[in-house]
TrEMBL record:
Keywords: Hydrolase
PANTHER family: HYDROLASE C777.06C-RELATED, HYDROLASE C777.06C-RELATED-RELATED
Ranges that cross the membrane: none
Primary enzyme class: hydrolase
One Pfam family of this chain: Lactamase_B_2
UniProt organism field: Bythopirellula goksoeyrii
CDD domains reported for this sequence: metallo-hydrolase-like_MBL-fold
Domain (Metallo-beta-lactamase) ranges: 44-238
Annotated signal peptide: none
Cited InterPro entries: Metallo-B-lactamas, RibonucZ/Hydroxyglut_hydro
Protein name, per record: Phosphoribosyl 1,2-cyclic phosphodiesterase
EC number(s) reported in the record: 3.1.4.55
GO MF, any single term: phosphoribosyl 1,2-cyclic phosphate phosphodiesterase activity
């Protein structure tokens, strides 16, 4: 196998790999209008982003659809991964990174909080049982990089972490990269994090469905956050099958859009 991956140059772009909720859209066994839609915007894999930075491609979360997403977008290499939280729809594609260690010539750096690392070490325990490297290639080679609420750098790019509430019992991270911020899987943004979300060009924000939910913003709640923060552009993600792309898009206020798989946004 060649160790020089064939990969699309995405420098200066943020690409939505997935914009769907935890079960994806279409949902298994569902015959609703959105799940049976022929509009490709209604085909949503599990949430993930990739940022094309000058020093390499930064992946946010490893969704269970990761292989399909990277192949679809012709992205052949990932230099680092940044995690929002430890739920299955955000980490369980991690094994699809196994080829990256050959392309990088070493382990893939994973930037995450302690509870995310704990879940990864438990769920992918086989990746940490081979210190001699005898089974190199059969298991992902990983390098854990602990992060918290202090700003840090990934691939030379400054990152501002943002504490978000994902229901009453789960805390997650959002991230700000210059004038772009990503806040998925949340139904409450603490005051200190709201302060760090001012003066944005692009806000990417959780929006599950029409009705309120215990762990996600509803459409009205997401619109209220967007109105308060007033970014130039708001892109809604983590969308369920209740939200038909064309019908909802036609009713959104100026500056607010539903994101979709494959959407590319310039990085500021």
């Amino acid at each position: 196998m060649s160790r020089l991956p064939t990969t699309r140059d995405i420098r200066g772009q943020l690409i939505f790999l997935g914009t769907g909720t935890s079960v994806g859209v279409p949902a298994i066994g569902c015959g609703c209008e959105v799940c049976t839609s022929t509009d490709p915007h209604n085909n949503r894999t599990r949430c993930s982003l990739v940022l094309g930075l000058e020093a390499g491609n930064l992946l946010i979360d490893t969704s269970p659809d990761l292989r399909t997403q990277l192949l679809r977008e012709k992205i052949g290499i990932v230099q680092a991964v940044l995690y929002t939280h430890e739920h299955a729809d955000h980490i369980f594609g991690l094994d699809d990174l196994r080829l990256m260690q050959f392309y990088l010539g070493g382990p893939v750096p994973l930037y995450c909080e302690q509870q995310v690392e704990d879940r990864i070490r438990k769920s992918f325990d086989y990746a940490f049982r081979d210190p001699s490297g005898l089974h190199r290639g059969a298991v992902p080679q990983l390098q854990m990089e602990r992060i918290g609420l202090e700003p840090f750098k990934v691939l030379g790019t400054p990152v501002i972490p943002l504490r978000l509430e994902h229901g009453p019992h789960c805390q997650v991270l959002g991230f700000r990269f210059g004038d772009v911020a990503y806040c998925t899987d949340t139904n409450s943004i603490p005051v200190e994090s709201m302060k760090k979300l001012r003066d944005l060009e692009v806000l990417i924000l959780d929006c599950l469905r029409f009705n309120p939910h215990t762990t996600h913003f509803s459409l009205d709640e997401a619109l209220a956050v967007a109105e308060e923060l007033a970014p130039r552009r708001t892109l809604l993600t983590h969308l369920s099958h209740e939200l038909d792309h064309a019908k909802v898009s036609a009713k959104l206020p100026a500056g607010v859009e539903l994101a979709y798989d494959g959407l590319s946004v310039p990085l500021q």
